């Protein structure tokens, strides 16, 4: 169980600059990514970031249904961010909340610039993100996993989108806040970028930051996104290495 | 589920002309890139509301009604009043608005305005607690978009603040453990901060402030920065299908900080003039 914060005098960062979960201020949580985990989806990915557990499936490009949602000059990208009822401390209703609706929109807008949707007019590309367990920073982890699932589906992209949040806790700018830091922090700044193009595709903030803190936080998040981008490429490669390995085994049996 | 929106076909045809114009530093309505359209603020127009305002930003018209009721606090904040922001994109406002429950645009708009007010601690919610854990005052901010000509975030944030500044709420006395009684008099809301939202749009290679409807139709992306009275940033939101370079974000923050103080003085002046 996470340590609960009884009153404001409880500090989340020790004098040595070490955080509740033992991380340094600019340290990411352990991340595990896996690609192609679902059989029926055209593309899929699984991500664990801290205690976050998120599964993303991509279907498409496929015929738009109903037809009137189609656009004549590009594919329609559709996104659903959804939290499982058991993903949080208290059970949450499976009906989409206002928060879920906003996050579905900003996640879609974070992915749109990467997907080369002009190649598939009159179709839809559907991205479904299910938060199985939530531990702060789920929208960013969803974006990271969604890019992997899109790549796994073979959808042409300008770059993979990588995302990470920074927060302000006990007056310090910290990378990748966990649940306790997120809930008790003074600010939250989720960022997504296309690292090869150096462009920001998601930027939100709530809390209170000076201009200097905002810009320092943004730079810290961008640096972390570059690191996450490397891990995404690794995860994608791993899938094909595994296929290659199993092909070799299969081939060996045939002779 | 959130889906790629359809852009109006006229915008597609006029797109290039409009982008060329803006890239040459001009705009359709003759404004400079960082000019706002004329702002008109009226307050106290709905007698049955605790506070109200009608804000015009160019041809965009937004009405806000504030209603204050008694209710229960949230479990995690037993000693704080409750703030609720809701947006109605009324079908009067645009041929593209349809009746029905709030869509993702209405929800995003409400949540961005909410974040600005909440994170800047614009309302002293602690002063709205009557009996901790049991009875607090609940503030409903209902944003009514009546004519949509672009930049709903900034106009809604201005209208919300104007309505809050002119709201009057009943005073109560606490009698015993869980009984309260209306005093029969009212007081202004405890307003502690004045958050101002400044929205920038990126069109072609240029950045402009306060995009009109046509400009929103051709923009790549928008970025809203909400700034409080101490020049602290209390909310940010990127929207749209495009991207921003980090250097563009930095310069938009600078613009937002200087523009917000200009808009804040204008709003406070207008509210003051309306009260006298």
Question: Which features would summarize this protein structure in a list?
Answer:
heterodimer; A: 255 residues; alpha+beta; Ribosomal Protein S5, domain 2; five-stranded mixed beta sheet; four-stranded antiparallel beta sheet; 4 helices; globular; disordered N terminus; B: 276 residues; six-stranded mixed beta sheet; 5 helices; 13 strands; 34% strand; elongated
SSE layout and pairings?
The complex is a heterodimer of chains A (255) and B (276).
Chain A: E1 31-35, E2 43-49, E3 52-63, E4 76-83, H1 98-111, E5 123-133, H2 138-152, E6 162-169, E7 172-175, H3 179-184, E8 187-194, E9 199-209, H4 211-254
Parallel strand pairs in A: 4-5
Antiparallel strand pairs in A: 1-2, 2-3, 3-5, 6-7, 6-8, 8-9
Helix pairs in contact in A: 1-2, 2-4
Chain B: E1 2-3, H1 9-23, E2 39-43, E3 51-57, E4 60-71, E5 82-89, H2 104-119, E6 129-131, E7 135-147, H3 152-165, E8 168-175, E9 179-188, E10 196-203, E11 206-209, H4 213-218, E12 221-227, E13 233-239, H5 246-275
Parallel strand pairs in B: 5-7
Antiparallel strand pairs in B: 2-3, 3-4, 4-7, 6-7, 8-9, 10-11, 10-12, 12-13
Helix pairs in contact in B: 2-3
Walk me through the structure.
Chain A is an alpha+beta fold. In chain A, 31% of the residues lie in helices and 29% in strands. Chain A has one domain (31-254): GHMP Kinase, N-terminal domain (Ribosomal Protein S5, domain 2, 2-Layer Sandwich), CATH 3.30.230.70. In chain A, strand 1 and strand 2 (43-49) form a beta hairpin. The longest helix of chain A is centred in the last third of the chain and has 44 residues, at 211-254. Chain A is globular. Chain B is α+β, with helices and mostly antiparallel strands and 276 residues long. Chain B has one domain (12-275): GHMP Kinase, N-terminal domain (Ribosomal Protein S5, domain 2). Chain B contains 5 helices and 13 strands. In chain B, helix 2 packs across helix 3 (152-165).
């Amino acid at each position: 169980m996470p340590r609960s914060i009884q009153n404001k005098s409880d500090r989340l960062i020790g004098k040595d600059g070490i955080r509740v979960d033992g991380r340094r201020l600019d340290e990411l949580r352990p991340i595990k990514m896996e690609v192609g985990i679902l059989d029926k989806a055209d593309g899929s990915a699984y991500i664990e970031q801290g205690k976050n557990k998120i599964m993303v499936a991509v279907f498409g490009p496929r015929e738009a249904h109903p037809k009137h949602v189609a656009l004549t000059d590009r594919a329609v990208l559709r996104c659903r961010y959804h939290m499982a009822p058991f993903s949080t401390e208290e059970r949450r209703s499976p009906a989409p909340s206002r928060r879920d609706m906003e996050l579905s929109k900003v996640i879609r807008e974070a992915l749109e610039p990467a997907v080369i949707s002009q190649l598939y007019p009159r179709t839809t590309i559907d991205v479904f993100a299910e938060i199985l367990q939530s531990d702060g920073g789920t929208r960013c982890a969803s974006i990271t996993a969604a890019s992997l699932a899109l790549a796994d589906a073979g959808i042409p992209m300008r770059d993979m989108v990588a995302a990470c949040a920074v927060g302000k806790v006990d007056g310090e700018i910290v990378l990748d806040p966990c649940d306790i830091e997120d809930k008790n922090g003074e600010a939250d700044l989720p960022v997504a970028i296309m690292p090869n193009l150096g462009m920001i595709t998601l930027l939100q903030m709530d809390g209170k930051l000076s201009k200097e803190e905002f810009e320092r936080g943004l730079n810290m998040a961008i640096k972390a996104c570059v690191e996450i981008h490397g891990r995404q490429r690794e995860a994608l490669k791993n899938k094909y290495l595994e296929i290659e390995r199993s092909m070799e085994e299969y081939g060996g049996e045939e002779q | 589920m959130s889906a790629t929106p359809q852009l109006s076909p006229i915008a597609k045809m006029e797109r290039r002309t409009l982008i060329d114009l803006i890239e040459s530093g001009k705009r359709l309505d003759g404004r400079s890139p960082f000019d706002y359209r004329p702002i008109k603020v009226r307050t106290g127009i709905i007698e049955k509301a605790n506070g109200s305002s009608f804000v015009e930003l160019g041809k965009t018209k937004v009405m806000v009604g504030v209603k204050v009721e008694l209710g229960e606090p949230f479990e995690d904040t037993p000693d704080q009043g409750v703030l609720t922001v809701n947006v109605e994109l009324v079908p009067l406002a645009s041929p593209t608005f349809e009746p029905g429950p709030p869509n993702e645009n209405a929800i995003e708009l409400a949540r961005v305005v909410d974040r600005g007010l909440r994170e800047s601690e614009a309302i002293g919610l602690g002063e709205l607690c009557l009996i901790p854990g049991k009875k607090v005052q609940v503030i409903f901010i209902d944003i009514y978009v009546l004519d949509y000509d672009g930049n709903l975030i900034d106009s809604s944030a201005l209208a919300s603040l104007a309505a809050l500044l002119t709201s009057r709420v009943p005073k109560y006395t606490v009698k015993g453990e869980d009984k309260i009684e209306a005093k029969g008099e009212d007081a202004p809301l405890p307003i502690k901060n004045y958050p101002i939202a400044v929205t920038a749009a990126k069109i072609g290679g240029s950045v402009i402030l306060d995009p009109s409807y046509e400009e929103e139709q051709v923009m790549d992306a928008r970025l809203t920065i909400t700034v409080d009275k101490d020049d602290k940033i209390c909310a940010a939101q990127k929207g749209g299908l495009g991207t921003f370079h980090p250097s563009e974000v930095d310069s938009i923050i600078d613009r937002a900080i200087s523009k917000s103080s200009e808009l804040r003085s204008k709003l406070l002046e207008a509210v003051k003039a309306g009260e006298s």
